[in-house]
Amino acid sequence: MKTTVDYKSVKYTQDGNTVICDLVSEIRYDKIKHMEFFMDIPDVYAYIKKIADSKGNIVLHTRGVAKCLPTDTFDYETGRRIAYTRAQSEVFYKAADTYDEIMRRIEIDIESVSLNCYLAGHKCFQHIGDLVEGTNNE
User: Fold this and answer.
1) Which residues lie below 8 Å from residue 94, measured CB to CB, with a gap of 6+?
2) Which whole number is the average pLDDT over 16-39?
3) Beta strands, E only, the chain
4) 62 and 91 in contact (C-beta within 8 Å)?
5) SS3 33
6) For residues 119 and 113, what is the distance between their CA atoms, to the nearest angstrom?
7) pLDDT number for residue 56
8) pLDDT at position 11
9) Which whole number is the average pLDDT over 91-116?
10) Cα separation, 64 vs 61, whole angstroms
């Protein structure tokens, strides 16, 4: 599995001793681009269609903030680097949350199938009991 991140735009603003970085990123996850794989799981497919484009790319907007303490000397470039790195880390946290949500939805679907199989097996087992009882009564 591979995740690729492209940073589409970066915007810095300064407010006093605070530097803010607004970052727009595009996440490409090699498994999501094959969206037809998820078509058999409607809840997962609907979720992916909501968050990703037709190629499976997910666009994320994140913000990083670097605030200089009153006891420190303000340095705009250092603030930019800190704010950018914080925005960047948010990209990966959001990507991880997205993948966790996809896995949660897949797990719910699999648990449902598993439960149905268990119930069908139990029904078959009960049928054996009915067959055995039917032979004893004849």
Assistant:
1) 60, 62
2) 79
3) 3-15, 18-29, 57-67
4) yes
5) coil
6) 10
7) 75
8) 98
9) 86
10) 10
